[in-house]
């Protein structure tokens, strides 16, 4: 049984599509399909049901997927153990993070990773917190930095820090810098991301508890564009202070604390509870636990 074929099969099964798997694996789709078919021929079993929407697992495929994950994990651990004999951690770690956070931490995290694990490979993938949780389950990500994660039996969460949320407006606007009560946030014209963005969901949930709804002026998915629109006078935003610090000119903005009650966004490390972590992944988890809070609390 070919290990590469097993790895291909696992990725197709986890992503539910030959097309998505071929992109993830950087292999032509016909070649990928042929390798999986050769595995089926060798095992004398149909492993996948192919349909117009993708693929689903047969009973035999489900059994093979469970065992294949274990086999591939053991192979990865073997490689790591052999690397450890010569004093190095190896392997690949895929880390997901929101774009606004990536702009703040990706460079120093990458620098620390390369210093501590020079024989390992790092992939940083940007995405929404909800999307990244799905990617952890499917195996596309090993670790993710997520905001306001919903508890799930498939995901283990390690809280890192709570970041206060602020009303962001132009620095020349009236009341710049003064606290604003949560109930008064409902009267502010907001430039805010679309659902299921974590801050959008938090604002709607907390205002909903007061029987209120946010006044959405524009739905924009991207912190840089949101800040550009706030600077242009299109409305106001709800963001962390760190998000504002990623702007080209942070002095254009005033941050107003949201109070009574305070709005906070919880940043957590997330990883799949389905598969054990490799030594390199655990080392990366420790690095993120150590470094990210420092980066976000240092002005």
TrEMBL record:
State the similarity comment: Belongs to the LysR transcriptional regulatory family.
Q: What is the originating organism of this protein?
A: Thauera chlorobenzoica
Q: Which GO terms describe its biological process?
A: regulation of DNA-templated transcription initiation
Q: Which PROSITE patterns match?
A: HTH_LYSR
Keywords per UniProt: Activator, DNA-binding, Transcription, Transcription regulation
Q: Using the record, list the residue span of the signal peptide; answer none if the entry has no such feature.
A: none
**What is the designated name of this protein?**
Transcriptional regulator ligR, LysR family
Q: Which Pfam families match?
A: HTH_1, LysR_substrate
Any one GO MF annotation of this record: DNA-binding transcription factor activity
